[in-house]
């Protein structure tokens, strides 16, 4: 049986591979807090789509908005028939879908591993990983699919080294995540990959709890003695899943965008000091969190002249916020010289991306080395033929055929 996903309640079809759905520009100007109806919601079916940068930032820092799973409506339907939708509260350790103070307790245990300083200390290892991936790529006979040979490999190998996951477990986990992070799988695919993913993580945790926990990130967390096996399972799920579905898409889509903007690519190649800002601008311009973030109001909240009632879900369109002309001049242009730092590609507030410094360092070093090593890298198909990940939680490309030499 092939699962036919019900269209998400928000616009998601892209006409240009790098621009958010065309509807957002009009919504942002004319109806920035616009009503939507959720088919599946534990409380209110009526909710809102928020498209302006200032409203989204405000909501992301307002404790009257919650991220608790048992309260949130679904932005798109799951791959099975659901008659009654009454989600459970988040399992222990699944801090992404918790509010303070539960969220704070878990997040504090993890932040020390991902600070700017920690990632700076990790950079020599990251460089070695990236050089290794590029050495392997240079041995290949082009054309190659850049997604497979470059974009997926760097985050996979850095996750192995930081979290102490074996390469074979990581390969399996990556395959399962890549299916369940889409919204167009079949029911059978979902069940298979979800079960396999859980079984792999359960085995990994059981081994560590029974024997030597290891001295990597997961091992050090276990050694604190503060976390149960179930909590560790959920933390590992979030941390590994968070890394595997995001940075690869930014690498592949970012390379595609740079190849399609040769004048910008030439500029950053001439002036490598621009690479840091190029990464920020790519994060802003491409905003891979395709369906944005969502929150639910715990009480009635007035915002932008509308009342969001208690129990209503709001979808925060991060792709739209990052094209808001109130914050970014000529927002639809890709311009590596612009100040881009105020983008919301990593979210904002207490749930702001935990892995953002790792993602930034990986992208900065990765793009620099890719174009140093393959200065004449080019697509082997017309841009219109590159397959886009429109029905996935994180936007990107499924394949990027490239050649060189
Ligand atoms: C370019 C790459 C990435 C992008 C665009 C990205 C984007 C985001 C966004 C938008 C959020 C906030 C979601 C919300 O508020 O509802 C988030 C949260 C998170 N990200 Fe990332 N992410 C990236 C890379 C990573 C990496 C490499 C890791 C892991 C090492 C990671 C781990 C997490 C975690 C654990 C959270 C949840 C934090 C919390 O709830 O406190 N992310 N990410």
UniProtKB/TrEMBL annotation:
Keywords from the UniProt entry: Heme, Iron, Metal-binding, Monooxygenase, Oxidoreductase
Superkingdom in the source lineage: Bacteria
Ranges in coiled-coil conformation: none
InterPro entries referenced in this protein's UniProt entry, alphabetically: Cyt_P450 (IPR001128), Cyt_P450_B (IPR002397), Cyt_P450_CS (IPR017972), Cyt_P450_sf (IPR036396)
PROSITE patterns (UniProt xref): CYTOCHROME_P450
GO molecular function: heme binding; iron ion binding; monooxygenase activity; oxidoreductase activity, acting on paired donors, with incorporation or reduction of molecular oxygen
Family that this chain belongs to: Belongs to the cytochrome P450 family.
Name of protein: Cytochrome P450
